[in-house]
Amino acid sequence: MRRPVLGADQPMPDAVDRVVGTIRFAVDHAVPGMLHGRLVSSQSPHARIVSVDATEALAVPGVRAVVTGADIARDPRVPHPLFGVSRPDQPPLATDKVRYVGEPVALVVAETERAARAAAVLVDVEYEDLPYVTDPAEALRPGAPVLHDQWPDNACGDWRLQRGDVDAVFRQAEHVVEHVYHSPAASQVPLEPFVAVAEWDDAGSLEVWSSTQWPSAVQRVLAHMFDRPLDQVRVHAPPLGGGYGAKGQVKIEPMVACAALLVGQPVRLELDRVEVFHVVCKHEATMRLRTAVDGEGRLLARDIDLLYNAGAYGITDPGAAGNALVRANGPYRVPAVRIRSRAAYTSTVPSGSYRGAMTNQVSFAYESQLDEIAALLGKDPYELRRLNLLVDGDTYATGETMHDVHFIELVDEVASVIDWHAPPEPPPSATTVRGKGLAVILKSTPTPSRTECRVELHADGSVVVFTSSVEMGQGAFATIAQLAAHHLDVDLSRVSVVGPDTARTPFDTMTAGSRTTFSNDHALHEAAAHLREHLDGLARELLGWSGPTQHGDGCVSTSDEGPVPYELLLAKAGVDVVDVTGVFQSVGGEGMKDPSDVHGHTSVHWHQGAVAVEVEVDLETGKVEVLRCHGASWAGRVVNPARVRQQNDGCMIMGIGTALYEDLQVVDGQVVNPNMSDYMIPSVLDVPQALTSRALVSDDPAAELHGVGEMTIPATAPAIANAVFRATAVRVRDLPLTAERVLSAVRGREPQEGA
Amino acid sequence: MSEATDDGQVVRLKVNGAELSVAVPGDEPLATTLRDRVGLRSVRTACGIGICGSCTVQVEGRAVSSCLMLTAAVGERSVRTCEGLVGAEGAPGRVQQAFVDNRAYQCSYCIPGMVVSVDAYLGEHPDADVDEVRHALSGNLCRCGTYVSILAAVHDLVASARSGAAAATPAD
């Protein structure tokens, strides 16, 4: 018998290429005759485009064209230029007006990158400035500057939930607390920039290579844009040099495909870092959270008002505010809940997915406030959580019954490892203090969604799995190979994986929301069943077998025959290849059908995570250092322990960045830190000396797999804020907890402007 | 040694032990030359301003950000990229193998730069401890947060250097 393949620490098959640097990303892709693009970007937050003068740019040797939004708008080959997965509101290049600083206005196309770069600065765009708004609350006021004529109130999502008589509970409650929490815009910062290559053939088919997490969506959006059948749009998604949500939905592909069409030659566009900062960011969010509690600390009611900054285009909005609404209550039993969750257009970088999307902002609020309630009542924050955390059978705010939830195990795990009940180690000096904090989160998973796996069993015994799930460093392909070997019960060495190429690989909704392991597990389970049926049929029809069969260890047998290895069965039957497809279609999600009344089923299952930290605060500088950090997520079962640990660890490290310093700052309508010097991400020196994690699993060998791609990030910032509070008695309700902000709070005054 | 052409000037480079001539504009960064003209994919420009370390190469054994160094200024100095750290017969080099063994890779965009930095630092400081290497790596950023695995690889390298040194030291 082979060793079990699930739970085995299998390296990624291309590990050496990854370490040596010979792996091919989209950024390494080239096609013959390819031209190079270079962006001309808006310098105004909101303005009418009066004219685009490309005369000087076109005179630069090697420049072939300067494509503008007007060129695309008037071209009959682009019947539907506006795109957007959640709402089609975005042009490939700004047309008529610009809506934020950094928005692409024109694309210079030249024979070399150097020529394109030289020409781009010569494109003369004349703007007529319009009033602009960057604050989402101001954007929703009557009379605010309107970004999109079609949505004159600037609303890009308005979701409501009401459960129980909230007002009556508040009137009678022993304690009512109310606070406002704010998370700034932040940047995902994938190190591989956005890059795409587009090529049209003479027959009018389009082929695109892109650094995308959503190849199926890119294919569909482009097919609609150019009114082509799906089979005439082929999208490849090579392994990504980082995604973190940034490469979800559809980004620069429409612009590049339009340019290739208009110029009549393949076009490649690779953004530089400043441009990457302007494609997409994390939603800035403000959450007003009012909670009623009894004297024991039981949560009785919540009234939540959430406002997200969608930016200039609804990359994930208006749907995203609905996802936020579902998660805003947190993993707690609260009988009466009212939530309103809105997003508003503003003249800022479009907001989109960011690891832990639409969860980080709400978890910072509800987990900070839980500690505020504990402090008010004199309760232990850990015990207060245990009193209120959801357990199986509880009813959630949406009205759905919770199942397979393990929040108490998670908080117990992190509290135990951080020695919750022991005081922190004594600080090294009289001007430093230490404290511990913890946080627990839940996240709904995309519902409904679909994942297909096509599996070929060849006569040589090899198995090829075709998937449109994207390999972005999380080990998707290696995990799919392990799952395939497990479900087919064949040796892992015989399994290979073919990644996203929409002409060859079957549908997958997206590689996002920590759904890849979970959904491929189901799809491969089904594919394996189909494969066994198919092989049984071959044995019956071609070999004359009868009676029930058994499958195991890559062989089929009956009580009379075998065991016969699969490859031998195929050889005997004279069959070269058996081809089956397994499908996972998650159902439900009807609870989000009506934005004005969210209730009912919203999530096929729940992501669950917890983090505990110990921090040290320097009272003279305000600097916060995370000394110890332990995270836990619910996995159900583990496919690969090393990769699960890297997901949990990596989330906490990213979370330390968002907790302590990441803040995409907008001043006068312009991002002022769109570079990696002024916008810092964590280095190895920011990693706590003790950073550990654990994936919790079920005793049940058939337990459902849960994705673990983003379970500890939403808990990290509130755990740190809570630890800072316990160290200093100062509560910071605005992220990030910069040294300036903590120092100002410690000194008992409000942060200075810009701090 | 250079001559002017329409593309700028022909520069002779020593890259990964091989001598080659490339015509480059005078303002071209070494990172661009190595990636686009020499075809070394491990050299990746991510920030373009010498902050992230994804384009790290060794020049005369020292780690530098190749996005900040002009190709025309390299001169006689030898350049080594991560591809050039592969050992005999294409096997991963010592540092590379430690990264592979410790699963010190996720999306891996930053990893070759990390490997080059670790190799350079340990080359200059064979007795370095893990903490010193950690500080030397602070200019190589990994957004996946693979640092724990990377430090495990560094730990193995430091430990094997120490045991190697101990074995080489005659007993009293």
Features:
heterodimer, A: 755 residues, alpha+beta, 7-stranded mixed sheet, 5-stranded mixed sheet, 26% helix, 26% strand, B: 172 residues, 6-stranded mixed sheet, 5 helices, 6 strands, globular
Got a strand count of chain B?
6
Integer average pLDDT of chain B: 93
Helix content of chain A: 25-40%
- Give the strand order of the largest sheet of chain A, numbering strands 1, 2, ... along the chain: 3-5-1-12-9-10-11
Low-confidence segments of chain A, given as residue ranges, are: none
Beta-strand percentage of chain B? 15-25%
Structural class of chain A: alpha+beta
Please give the most extensive interface between any two protein chains, plus how many residues each contributes: A-B, 55 and 51 residues
Main sheet properties of chain A: 7 strands, mixed
Supply the helix-strand structural class of chain B: alpha+beta
**Global shape of chain B:** globular
Distance between the termini of chain A: 62 Å
How far from one another are the termini of chain B? 53 Å
Rg over CA atoms of chain A: 27 Å
Helix content class of chain B: 25-40%
Please outline the major beta sheet of chain B: 6 strands, mixed
Number of continuous helical runs of chain B: 5
Q: Determine the strand fraction of chain A and express it as a percent band.
A: 25-35%
Task: Identify the quaternary structure here.
Answer: heterodimer
Tally of contiguous helical segments of chain A: 19
Count all strands of chain A and give the number.
30
